[in-house]
Amino acid sequence: MSLARSLERRIEQLVEGIGTKVFRGQLHPIEVAIRIVREAELALTNTGVGPAAPNAFAVSLNPADLGDDADQVVLRLNKVVAEAARERGWRLEGPPLVTLTATSNVAEGAMAVETAIRPGLLDPWGSLIETRGPRRLHLTKNRSLVGRSRRADVMLGDETVSRTHSLLWHDAGGMWIQDLASSNGTTVNGGMVGEPAELHDGDVIGFGETRFGFRSS
């Protein structure tokens, strides 16, 4: 699976300036970053609300390729995972967690990557603010399910809300909402949502008869 050029350019920007103290020999940081994203693509699963990617990546390198002070590069590689998830619309169950380990079991210039899903707390990417009530609900997971079901990421107990009512997510540089064949429909600024609709700050979303203002974080 090839990376889209826009995402590849963004990855290059995120790892730009990483010095040779971290990666030595012929291995370049951009190779590690792109390999992590490709391993995420290969490990995608369907959660029923769209593709989910692993959030933990254990990268093994030969000691000759891995230098000292890897903290900076790990932080940037974590950002690479987060950026790829937003660009591709992947759901992560926890924050990105990349680790770098030196081992002689890997040849110089090569790498081994193991993926895993490690649930954890995520920072909000958006909020739903009730227009005529006290509720302020955070959207933390990409591809957040809104509904009355206990398995919903944002659970609404309102009678006019279906068990699986709507889906909100990041994808391709935008924020989107999709009605999931709910009984009473989903609206954005009063218009009924059929196909996926793009969201903007200040939009008013209706889940059945309940109204929330949308704010991105």
Tell me what you see in this structure.
The structure is a single chain. Helix 1 crosses helix 2 (29-42) and helix 1 (5-15) packs antiparallel against helix 3. By secondary structure, the protein is of the alpha+beta class. It is elongated and about 60 Å long. The protein starts with a helix and ends with a strand. It has 3 helices and 16 strands. It has a 6-stranded antiparallel sheet, with no helix packed on it. Strands 9-8-10-11-14 form a 5-stranded mixed sheet. A hairpin with a 2-residue loop joins strand 15 and strand 16.
What features would you highlight for this structure?
217 residues, 20% helix
Q: How is the secondary structure organized here?
A:
Elements: H1 5-15, H2 29-42, E1 45-46, E2 51-52, E3 56-61, H3 71-88, E4 97-102, E5 111-116, E6 126-130, E7 136-139, E8 144-147, E9 154-155, E10 166-171, E11 174-179, E12 186-188, E13 191-192, E14 197-198, E15 204-207, E16 210-216
Parallel strand pairs: 3-4, 8-9
Antiparallel strand pairs: 1-2, 3-5, 6-7, 6-16, 8-10, 10-11, 11-14, 12-13, 12-15, 15-16
Helix pairs in contact: 1-2, 1-3, 2-3
